[in-house]
Amino acid sequence: MRGEMETGSQAELEQRLALASAEDTLRGFFFTAALKVVRNECDETVWSRCLEASGERRFMAFFSYPIGSLLRLLYAAAWALGEKHGGFDAAMQHLGRHVVPDYLESSAGRLLKMLPVGAPKLLLGNLPPAYRTAVLHGECSVTWTGANRCVLLIQRSALPVPYLEGALRSLFESVKLRHVKVIGRQAGPLESEFSVSW
User: Fold this and answer.
1) Residues 6+ apart with CB under 8 A from 198
2) The overall pTM is greater than 0.90
3) CA distances (Å), 123 to each of 33, 104, 156, 172, 185, in order?
4) SS3 100
5) What residues form DSSP beta bridges with 27?
6) pLDDT digit string (tens) for 87-126?
7) Host H or E run for residue 42
8) 3-state SS assignment for residue 66
9) Element (H, E) at 141
10) What DSSP designation does 78 have?
C-alpha cells in the first residue's frame, strides 16, 4: 500500500478507510490517548479539528468505536504534529507510543505488566491474546525465527505501520525491556509485519 502513494497523504487515508470494515472496532482508549497528545501539544482549535475528524463527540475508554473514526483522527493529529516531530511517520509513531500507558491500565494491559521483568519471549507470546482484547478486529501472531528474534504479524487491520511500531516500542519500554529492535513494514493492504529482535 505505502509504495503506491505518498505516505500520510489524503489518498492514503482514503485507501485505508476503503479497506476498513464497519465491524472493525477498537477500544476508546486509542482515541482518548491521541486526543490527549493533541491537547498537550497543540491549541484548542487543532484539538477540536481532530475530534471533529473522528466523527464522534466523545469516547469512553473501554467502549468500542469504528477503526475508520480512529484513522481519521490519527491522520488529522499526525498532520498537525508532523512539523514538530520530524514528519508524518514520526508523528504517527509518537501517537502510537502514547496509547500504551492507557492500554496498560486495562485488564489485559495489567496482565502484561505482571509478567517478569526482562522476559521478552513471555511478553511476545502474550501479545496475540492481549491484542484481541483491545483491537476487536484482525489477528496478531508471533513466529519465532531465532532464539532472540521473531516476526510479529498483524493481519486484517488498516492501522498504519508507524503507529503500531511506536506502540510496540513503547510497550517494550514500559515493561523494562531495553534494546529491543522493532522494524515494521507494510506486507499487504491489511497486513503489517514487524521484525523484533534483542
Assistant:
1) 120, 148, 149, 177, 179, 180, 181
2) yes
3) 22, 13, 22, 8, 21
4) helix
5) 64
6) 999 999 999 999 999 899 877 688 888 887 778 899 999 9
7) none
8) strand
9) strand 139-146
10) H
